[in-house]
Fold this sequence. Notes:
2 domains; 11 strands; Rossmann fold; 33% helix; 10 helices; 333 residues; single chain; five-stranded parallel beta sheet; alpha/beta
Amino acid sequence: MTVLVLRLSALGDVAMTIPAVYSVARAYPQHTFVVATSAFTARFFINAPSNVEVIGLSKGESRGAGGTWRMLRRLSRLHVDAVADLHNVLRSWIVDAFFRLHLKPVAMLDKHRSERRSILHDHASSATPFINRYFDVFARLGLPAEPQFTSLFQNSLPPLPADLPAKANEQWVGVAPFARYRSKTYDEAQMREVVAQLAARPRSRVFLFGARGREEKLLHEWADKAENVFVVAGRLQLEEELALMAHVDVMLTMDSANMHMASLVGTRVVSLWGGTTPACGFLGYGQAPSDALMAGLSCQPCTIAGSDSCPLGHMQCTRAIPVQQIIQKIIAS
């Protein structure tokens, strides 16, 4: 049987699917799993099981009505026996409809919208983790499986990217201080203090992750004159960032793609939460809830996926986690 797996975007969401895809593929080696995703996120699928194939869709196949038509035309040529839709958006619905018309079974991600409303408005208990929802999609196709994923590099650590120092008897800390939305981003001045204190510790080395441009420039300002702080923003390819994350002892991230990337390589993550909280279902795979830090305000969470505005106008959740609490959590063994 050949199963088409759809998860077209975004960076962190695609990363979250990998533990489920790899686990199911290993549980059913007699089947083939063809993953359709963007060309960029296709690069996440490192050391995939031999029965996993990845189709990297170009921007021309994933944007607008024309792109959706080109994507459908490409995927329609596959000999597919079932579809696992891990996205559940308009573009994936069109692909689902095509294969349903050809009498192929389709299972679609349940977004639990009523559960989301309950979390936001009534601050109900935690939502079903997204990783569990991905496993459920496969189960509804008759492919139940238990998680058996540990790391993209589960057999051996990858080599460090070129030009980085060899690891000595020191703690390596990766810091990814940015997120797509303001409500998910810790206060800039306080994060700079966190980096300064980490850099001041003996036998400590800090790696700063971010995007090219503004983030890269800002991180170089933070690292100025600190010999044990390395800015990797703008220097490394995606695969190299994953390799470095596999070597660090702990990553400090927001509720962001970097949290999920570090989780993919089995690295411990201390995550900071503002407008979103782990109750929304997005805690990194295999991460300890006790390593997820938040202010604990009565208004949290106020958004499921993030926002650039605060319903109450103060954005206090992005500042209320004490710097020393973060430092102590990072250095804890």
